[in-house]
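User: I'm writing a tutorial on reading structure tokens. Could you give me a worked example: one chain, its sequence, then its tokens, then a sentence or two explaining what the tokens reveal?
Assistant: Sure. Here is the example chain.
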Amino acid sequence: MTAQDEKPPFLYVVVCAAGIAAGVGKLITAAQEREWQVGVIATPPAMNGFFDTVAVEAQTGHPIRSAWRRPGDPRPFPDPDAVVVAPATFNTINKWAAGIADTLALGTLCEVSGQGVPIGVLPCVSRALAAHPAYQESLIRLRDMGARFGYPYEGGEREDFGWERALDLLG
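And here are its predicted structure tokens:
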């Protein structure tokens, strides 16, 4: 195989419905600067104005995925070499840890967790929700499954989210 035959690694970015999601383009830019191809999978609520879907599709060159494909439809993305969940909400973290796969985003996270794919997670959870016992148990379960977590974002300046930290979690 020659260098021309090699394809860059493919990163899935799972975007959840949090106000900070508007900055996901920063993560995509950082990933592309590290020579990743990027495909975005969004939770259905995140598709409702939490980030600029047109700009993200233009930036990645791929359609954003939010719904299951129909049987026989081609797979729009290759298998992931790594996954980043950012911002990761309370709801997504708890459902993922419980094995609930009721959306494409959650189904994807449940699948890759069992495949040894590196997963970096940047939570965006309030202090009050982070104190909930179910959330704490979910973090333990997901860490035991191999997910790597960055420090939680509790609000404040959007520049404080540190999108590129997600890539550093991938190893």
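What the tokens reveal: The radius of gyration is 15 Å. The longest strand covers residues 82-88.
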